[in-house]
Amino acid sequence: MGPTPLSGAMRRAWTVALQALTLMMLVAEATSAETVVVKVAQGQLRANVRHLRGSEKQMLKCSGIPYAEPPVGPNRFKDAVPAAPWEGERSCSSECSECAQPLNPAAGSFSKGSEDCLCLNVYAPFPLLSGVPVMVWIHGGAFVSGDGGEMIYGTDSLVNEDVVVVTLNYRLGALGFLNLGTEEAPGNQGLKDQLMALRWVKNNIAAFGGHPENITIFGESAGSASVHYHTISPESEGLFSAAILESGSALNGWAFKNDTRSNVKLLLKAAKCDPATASEPAAAVACLRAAPARALIAPQTAFKSDEDKQQRALIAFPPSVDGRFLAEEPCALVAKRSGAAVRTMAGFNSAEGIISIALARFKGGMAEFDAGLTEGRGLCLPCEPCPASRSTLRRWAAETRRHFLAGQPLAEDTLQGYVAYSTYNMFFRGILDAVRARAKSSTVPHFFYEFDVQSELNFAKMLFGGQEINGSSHADELGYLFHNKLQPSHDFANDSVEVMTRQRLLKLWTNFAKTGDPTPEVSDLLPVKWEPFSLQDEQYLYIGNTGVEMRQHPLRNDCSFFESLWKDVS
């Protein structure tokens, strides 16, 4: 006798039950396949696993990991302390807030972000391996804006090259760099946040398959200057073995200011505190701590002291001497060969100064920038000769105008020349000085490059409004190293400039991180050997639309021009 047939109602009930059971099994299987628990010093983290963009490979993604306690309330302006342990599992599926910053750094009228922001993100090849080279990214943004999130810094392409990538947040603006010379506001809090993050990486990255003895730090603009600071600060020694500097160094004029007291008075006034307390650190800090963060953040890109206007300073609160992380001025530390054992790759973009177009055009600032050029504001850099007399400086400025702008005023038809001047003066000189110093004092190889590619991935050039200017803008290389949500969504042909340049940069950067040599072997993609920089020939790799080639003496004519000026004071 066979089984009793099920009624229609029972059959439907069993069907629903089986469907529910099947769904539960699928959900459980998907959950176990898409998340994984990673144990770090503070506790357990539940991370997500997903496929890399355009690849069959997978990536473990763990976002929003706290490396320090929130620097809020009585801890505002103080050095950070390590994050406390937690009980049970902590999800790391979401990024934390960006650090408090102006909504628009150029305007400075509103703020966004939070003071509870000291976290990092880890992206690792999956399944997890061991001994994988690590690359730690430090974002730029003039020490006043930016974050390590995936809006701009999507890491899929880097992880696809079999490296572990870490991105991080650090305090910005006055919250990150106010220096009153006291324990309550010691200065360089943002740099020391980065330092704490690097210590976290050193101690925990093995849990993600990373090699704690093969860590490369890299950054762009203010992030690049930060990287350079870590190479010359004894506090960071031993936390990494290599560094990549993209368009910035501690020797750039905008990257250091030894006395910010004039801006402290303006900050106190903006926070409705008594400016007279600028000379009374305890009273100043007490009032500034009581103010809402937005009162400290929003106005600081708009105000400039008379001294800053005279020097054409771009940043109100950059790094400064704090007696610990930065015991002396950068020039002195570089002269003492600090960090000489760290292998370095550094370079600049061919039209960095396109960013100055956006600044000059903002609120009709062209006339102010032209006046600054006449006065020679920002013409002298920290480690280079500078005339003592105002008349000599003005003569230098006039000769500079003749060299770059054919003696003409700054206007729409002389922008190409002004971009060349800004490229050289704002970025190239400080980077070249840093590389020359390393080549002079170090026995390990250092590599120099120029990036000069123009394609649809040059997102920064589009943002800054410099499409009519030849060359690669400040930050344009980021569109090739990272995926960002401002790029075109369509695919490119495999032999396109976009795809070929992306492949070249990814291979050069990750080869350097893996081996210390960006071209350990030549190939169809990289058909020339990148030779280390030497003081005699100043070799550098030129990266253009059609490929790469070795050249010598970057921006030789501009270098010769400024060296001729220096004879006045040498």
TrEMBL record:
It is an enzyme of class 3 (hydrolase). Residues 36-562 form the Carboxylesterase type B domain. GO terms for molecular function: carboxylic ester hydrolase activity. Residues 1-32 form the signal peptide. The keyword Glycoprotein applies. Keywords: Glycoprotein, Hydrolase, Serine esterase, Signal. Transmembrane segments: none annotated. Gene3D superfamilies: alpha/beta hydrolase. The keyword Hydrolase applies. Its EC number is 3.1.1.-. InterPro entries: AB_hydrolase_fold (IPR029058), CarbesteraseB (IPR002018), Carboxylesterase_B_AS (IPR019826). PANTHER family: CARBOXYLIC ESTER HYDROLASE (PTHR43142). Belongs to the type-B carboxylesterase/lipase family. This is Carboxylic ester hydrolase. The lineage of its organism: Eukaryota, Metazoa, Ecdysozoa, Arthropoda, Hexapoda.
